[in-house]
Amino acid sequence: MAKPKVLVTRELYERPLRLLQEKAEVTLNRENRSMTIEEIMAALPGKMGVLAMGSDPMNAKVLGAGKDLKIVANNAVGFNNIDLEAATRLKIAATNTPDVLTDTTADLTFALILGVARRIAEADRFVRAGKWTGWTPSLMIGGDIHDKTLGVIGLGRIGSAVARRGQGFNMRIVYYDIRRLDPAVEQNHQLRFFPLRDLLRISDFVTLHVPLTPETRHLIGAEELGLMKKTAYLINASRGPVVDERALVEALRAGKIAGAGLDVFEAEPQVTPELLQMENTVLVPHIGSATDETREAMTLRAVNNILAVIRGQVPPDILNPEIYRG
Ligand code: GLV
Prior knowledge:
about 35% helix; alpha/beta
């Protein structure tokens, strides 16, 4: 019997790829660049599955080109690139890669916290530029992290992992989420809930861990930045459009906040040019999950979701289980 056909939009780790190839005929993009929408649409007819990157737009038009498509398996935990409504209407299973990247992304978040407050990237630039003339009492003075208040917006898997790291630094953890935890759980884990505006007012570090949805787009804009302490830092390793990047530039320029650590941007890979000129920003290119172990584990997870569909099972990381009802 002919193997089902699967499109993989970007070169991947060998081990998960081999597992997929045992059960499927794989068309793999071996070029070191993303496929264009047109290329994906042209490749989809006849494929039962697509293993897509979080940067591939899996909108209604693209999904509609996959007449035989049964699954779009995202190689990411975020899935704002997939039109879930369209997938559901077309009875295409959509999946993501939760859990396996939680700690790695929380580590990167903490690197941004430490990096921006202790001016690591700026200090590195300073040394490399040959500007260091000797120990100076006032050189590269930053902000402390320990004993400060960490405001976590979105206390899901990654937000919770960041909170645990904060506790290791003896930080006071406050959080805002659309779902409040049971007070007993809050107490056990030493987490305090605050409404968003209050959290912004009291936090020394505000870190974002919400998915990108219509409700969270520009969750942090001029007004919210205006509520933050002048000495506070904004950290974003979630999705760029959660922050109004223009408003962030203005807030940084006006000294309304002390700095920003950003892994994600509104129009990746473009970065608002003013951010590049500022010394109090730490900017990294969407590398939250970028370690060898984690990237391989993510792909394994995406492959397992496709293999489940090939076996006629519900994929473990299904995002639209309603397609299997009725
Ligand atoms: C990366 O941004 C992911 O969502 O996995």
